[in-house]
């Protein structure tokens, strides 16, 4: 396999083992054992760059090291230059990535190329599913319902150039939500009752929140909970026919002055439950910093969104497991 081997920890590593920020080091030690990184990185090792070969050429950085580096960037909201600098500067980061003090450090171009190869091979979904399989194997998924929600991730509106072109992302679009105008993309999430995101769809902001719910809940056999944007008579009928509890919030329909008493009771019953899907959205935006997209183009931002969700799932699994 054309994969370089990191240098084993030596005397220098042993001498500096107790240095570095204790809180960050403790968290990264927990994250290091949260999943089997070797198994998660297995699809990456099937890329052509990792195939056995003869002749000259630098071997690829270890797949597990690169994957761990990408997760570090997500957890700490780092750009590629910021990630390179942090790996050179922070002891706990190097230890988590599997880099000794005598190893070289991947540079920002290496991260750009690595991410491009994963994206072109559509490995973001494979990595996302591999992480969730491990979380499920630990018994941390609550398979008793699906919570659905969508969130807008804004894109710069751009500016017009003197030559008539624009810096605006041509694949992003506009929408209005809660009376406010947005420009960018939209992430559609399905989560279980524990707040682990189990499935993802990604679209431009123009797509209605409810466009992907039927895909996200097609395997659900227990309960579906969502806000009033997903309220549709035929959808409720389909859920009843499947024997699935309808936890979609009711809204007034045309000609209805107010919700009926049973609709109000229904909404009150499921409102707190529905709020659980907002927890991973808050983590995505607040802890991982994905309030605005980093790239131009739907596919690049879809890849980035799904990898961010995967990183959040790993971190969420720590609290669920009590690690």
Short structural summary:
With 323 residues, this protein is α/β, with parallel strands linked by helices. It has helices spanning 11-15, 22-32, 37-40, 63-75, 80-89, 91-97, 108-120, 123-137, 213-216, 233-242, 261-274, 278-287, 298-321; strands spanning 146-154, 173-177, 180-191, 197-204, 223-226, 245-248.
Structure commentary:
- The protein is α/β, with parallel strands linked by helices.
- It has two domains: 11-121, no CATH class; 142-321, Nucleotidyltransferase, domain 5, CATH 3.30.420.
- It has helices at 11-15, 22-32, 37-40, 63-75, 80-89, 91-97, 108-120, 123-137, 213-216, 233-242, 261-274, 278-287, 298-321, and strands at 146-154, 173-177, 180-191, 197-204, 223-226, 245-248.
- Strands 1, 2, 3, 4, 5 and 6 form a six-stranded mixed β-sheet that branches.
- Strand 2 (173-177) and strand 3 form a beta hairpin.
- Helix 4 crosses helix 13 and helix 5 crosses helix 6 (91-97).
- The longest helix has 24 residues, at 298-321.
- The relative contact order is 0.13.
């Amino acid at each position: 396999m054309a994969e370089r081997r990191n240098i084993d920890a030596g005397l220098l590593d042993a001498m500096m083992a107790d240095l570095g920020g204790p809180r960050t080091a403790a968290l990264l030690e927990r994250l290091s054992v949260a999943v089997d990184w070797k198994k998660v990185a297995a699809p990456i090792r099937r890329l052509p760059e990792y195939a056995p070969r003869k002749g000259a050429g630098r071997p690829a950085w270890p797949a597990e090291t690169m994957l761990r580096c990408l997760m570090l960037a997500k957890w700490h909201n780092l750009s590629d230059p910021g990630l390179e600098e942090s790996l050179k500067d922070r002891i706990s980061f190097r230890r988590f990535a599997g880099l000794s003090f005598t190893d070289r450090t991947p540079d920002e171009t290496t991260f750009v190329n690595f991410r491009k190869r994963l994206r072109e091979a559509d490995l973001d979904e494979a990595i996302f599913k591999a992480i969730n399989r491990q979380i499920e194997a630990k018994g941390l998924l609550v398979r008793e319902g699906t919570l659905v929600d969508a969130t807008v991730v804004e894109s710069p509106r751009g500016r017009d150039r003197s030559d008539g072109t624009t810096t605006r992302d041509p694949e992003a679009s506009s929408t209005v939500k809660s009376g406010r105008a947005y420009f960018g993309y939209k992430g559609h999430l399905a989560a279980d009752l524990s707040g682990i995101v189990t499935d993802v769809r990604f679209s431009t902001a123009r797509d209605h929140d409810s466009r992907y719910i039927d895909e996200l809940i097609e395997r659900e056999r227990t309960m579906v909970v969502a806000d009033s944007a997903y309220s549709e008579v035929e959808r409720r009928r389909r859920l009843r026919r499947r024997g699935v509890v309808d936890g979609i919030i009711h809204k007034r329909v045309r000609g209805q002055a107010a919700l009926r008493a049973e609709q109000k009771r229904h909404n009150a019953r499921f409102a707190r439950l529905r709020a659980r899907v907002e927890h991973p959205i808050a983590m995505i935006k607040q802890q991982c910093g994905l309030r605005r997209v980093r790239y131009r183009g739907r596919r690049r931002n879809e890849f980035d969104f799904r990898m961010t969700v995967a990183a959040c799932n790993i971190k969420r699994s720590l609290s669920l497991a009590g690690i």
